[in-house]
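Researcher: Re-running this chain for the archive, since the previous output was lost when a drive failed. Same request as before.
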Amino acid sequence: MTKRIERVAPEHLRAVLAAARREYPVGNPYGVRGFLVAPKRRGGKTLRYSTLQVCVVSKERTPRHPVEPLHFRAERQSYLLQPDVVGVGSCTTHPARGARANFSGLHPGAAIRVGNEIGALSVLLGRQGATEPSHLLTAGHVFAPGGTGRVHAALDGSSGEIEVGVLDINLLDTGDARDGALVELSSEGRELAGLTRAPGPAGDPSGIFPAAAATEFPRSQMYRPTAGDATTIARPERQAGLLVLDDAHRGTVTVESPIVAHVFGEAGDSGSLLRTVGSDSLAVGCYSGRVGGAGVFNSVSGLLRALRQEGAPRLHVWRPV
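Model: Regenerated structure tokens:
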């Protein structure tokens, strides 16, 4: 006998996510752009249990293909789970094509250019105890598929652009397919990093937040190179599920187990860093894009772990002494 439910019990989480992945692939007829297991909201209040939220660009009174209850099995029992359908508006990555970059050197949140695309640097990286950085981390979707992108930056708006590095590994082009890319710095890039004094809201983090098992994070904010300032402060949360973002290069970019925060950027902020607030701040997430009124991030610790599995050296956050 099939049991109808609206709550997702912790012991059913894995089965629910597996069923949702099968039911809502990219391009599904329901228009579902992602799904999350998140606290139930009703009348503006957050309730004490979780349900399945399916995200669509806009809710329709009479959709052509209405979202049906999700069928899954767990512990020899068959269930029909009634999801919440949530209209989120736009779901998109945030590089800027053909725009003028607001260059400010090389620091977390600094503008970078790859071909005709403007994005942002997430963190500078180096080996333990290194006196200069060797790599930078940014969003993978800033690069064209299969490309060997050359990265450019400048000390400020009045300085000429220089090539600061070359793409080493783009996880979007591997079997892992997370939205992160590792760039190996050139000698000019390493020198520029040493000359840079980051703007106040974009200081260098002291380390990486251990996000592997975290679901809630300390108060955090993101530096936006397009604005030359930091966002408001928010409390990010990791959500079980995945979100699909529109992307000009790849059609779509999928972010699994996203870190979601009510801060977001605009075109040209892709790759920037979400970091905890305080003098000893920690790197939390690399900005992928926006879903409705929230920013979507990949965990920096998760990206570095995935890059090591693809052959990258063990790297640590670098900051000037």
